[in-house]
């Protein structure tokens, strides 16, 4: 059967196959790298390839049995995004160590999806149900990525959070378009070509960024950077400011602290992260605030001072985050700690 394409469709396919080529290159790079984070990213690349090829300006009848495979990988995309999100935000995350009450139903659901798409062709109510679940998963990914975004001191992880939010937003837009837009819009050459060019541009950006930032900092370079940071006047100024009680300021943010030091916020994040080893600004503040509270709990003159008062004086906005931070750092509740003396 001959396939007749217009000039615009040829251009459309050019961008799609260029994107597929970049994604395959990325997959080869990830396979060669063989890191703990490779598997979810390889799966995500495979899912995107499925979407790129499935939405090409070619009639479904020309795909044959390949269409079911492409459709299956396309609908796996939200699950791949969730896996990537969990790995990116927690480098210690391992799928095998997830609770069984989550793993078993998830595996069963994926088996059902595999049968539905690969055998039944993905036509029916289950397809719509899966899209509904996909939207919920993407919203969860957005929440996880946005949560503590401004508190995160790891620049790479902060960037990953922002990219994941953008990726989820784009995929949710695609879902809405395919669910609610008319077939005339979905099948138009304008939509298809715009889709192809956008995918190629995003893939090119990701590939360029991934391949150019692939090299890890060697231990020797890391130790050299750390040694340089020790004599850093900005680090000295930061330590002096904190020792003077800057951490007691309520609603203190990385931006406010950077403003007091007279340096950009991103530079302060890097300083606290690389020189002091903190990946979270709240944890950095807690390293000052909790000892400050403990010192007053140890003092008999503060025996009748309410713990809530001490929490407010230490800069906390409410008692709940203070209690969590105290228990995490000291292994006891504030009341249990005070009762020791």
Automatic annotation (TrEMBL):
<feature type="transmembrane region" description="Helical">
    <location>
        <begin position="13"/>
        <end position="31"/>
    </location>
</feature>
<dbReference type="InterPro" id="IPR018062">
    <property type="entry name" value="HTH_AraC-typ_CS"/>
</dbReference>
<feature type="transmembrane region" description="Helical">
    <location>
        <begin position="101"/>
        <end position="119"/>
    </location>
</feature>
<feature type="transmembrane region" description="Helical">
    <location>
        <begin position="38"/>
        <end position="58"/>
    </location>
</feature>
<dbReference type="InterPro" id="IPR009057">
    <property type="entry name" value="Homeodomain-like_sf"/>
</dbReference>
<dbReference type="InterPro" id="IPR018060">
    <property type="entry name" value="HTH_AraC"/>
</dbReference>
<dbReference type="GO" id="GO:0043565">
    <property type="term" value="F:sequence-specific DNA binding"/>
</dbReference>
<feature type="transmembrane region" description="Helical">
    <location>
        <begin position="70"/>
        <end position="89"/>
    </location>
</feature>
<feature type="domain" description="HTH araC/xylS-type">
    <location>
        <begin position="236"/>
        <end position="340"/>
    </location>
</feature>
<protein>
    <recommendedName>
        <fullName>HTH araC/xylS-type domain-containing protein</fullName>
    </recommendedName>
</protein>
<dbReference type="InterPro" id="IPR020449">
    <property type="entry name" value="Tscrpt_reg_AraC-type_HTH"/>
</dbReference>
<keyword id="KW-0812">Transmembrane</keyword>
<dbReference type="Pfam" id="PF12833">
    <property type="entry name" value="HTH_18"/>
</dbReference>
<feature type="transmembrane region" description="Helical">
    <location>
        <begin position="188"/>
        <end position="207"/>
    </location>
</feature>
<feature type="transmembrane region" description="Helical">
    <location>
        <begin position="131"/>
        <end position="150"/>
    </location>
</feature>
<dbReference type="GO" id="GO:0003700">
    <property type="term" value="F:DNA-binding transcription factor activity"/>
</dbReference>
<keyword id="KW-0805">Transcription regulation</keyword>
<keyword id="KW-0804">Transcription</keyword>
<keyword id="KW-1133">Transmembrane helix</keyword>
<feature type="transmembrane region" description="Helical">
    <location>
        <begin position="162"/>
        <end position="182"/>
    </location>
</feature>
<keyword id="KW-0238">DNA-binding</keyword>
<keyword id="KW-0472">Membrane</keyword>
């Amino acid at each position: 059967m001959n396939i007749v394409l217009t000039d615009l469709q040829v251009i459309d396919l050019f961008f799609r196959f260029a994107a597929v080529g970049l994604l395959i290159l990325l997959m080869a790079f990830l396979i060669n790298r063989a890191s703990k984070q490779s598997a979810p990213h390889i799966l995500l690349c495979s899912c995107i390839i499925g979407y790129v090829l499935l939405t090409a300006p070619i009639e479904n009848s020309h795909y044959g049995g390949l269409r079911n495979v492409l459709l299956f990988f396309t609908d796996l995309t939200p699950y791949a995004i969730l896996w990537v999100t969990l790995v990116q935000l927690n480098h210690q995350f391992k799928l095998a160590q997830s609770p069984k009450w989550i793993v078993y139903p998830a595996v069963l659901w994926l088996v059902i999806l595999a049968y539905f798409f690969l055998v039944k062709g993905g036509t029916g109510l289950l397809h719509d149900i899966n899209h509904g679940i996909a939207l919920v998963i993407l919203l969860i990914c957005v929440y996880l990525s946005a949560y503590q975004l401004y508190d995160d001191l790891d620049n790479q992880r902060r960037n990953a959070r922002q990219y994941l939010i953008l990726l989820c937003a784009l995929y949710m837009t695609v879902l809405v378009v395919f669910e609610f837009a008319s077939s005339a819009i979905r099948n138009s050459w304008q939509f298809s070509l715009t889709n192809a060019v956008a995918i190629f541009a995003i893939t090119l950006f990701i590939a360029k960024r991934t391949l150019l930032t692939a090299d890890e900092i060697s231990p020797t370079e890391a130790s050299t950077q750390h040694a340089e940071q020790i004599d850093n006047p900005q680090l000295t100024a930061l330590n002096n400011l904190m020792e003077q009680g800057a951490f007691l300021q309520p609603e203190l943010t990385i931006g406010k602290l950077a403003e007091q030091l007279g340096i950009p916020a991103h530079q302060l994040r890097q300083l606290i992260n690389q020189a002091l080893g903190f990946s979270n600004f709240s944890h950095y503040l807690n390293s000052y605030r909790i000892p400050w509270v403990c010192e007053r709990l140890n003092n008999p003159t503060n025996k009748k001072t309410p713990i809530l008062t001490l929490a407010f004086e230490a800069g906390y906005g409410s008692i709940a985050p203070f209690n969590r931070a105290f228990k995490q750092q000291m292994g006891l509740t504030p009341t249990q700690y005070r009762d020791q003396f």
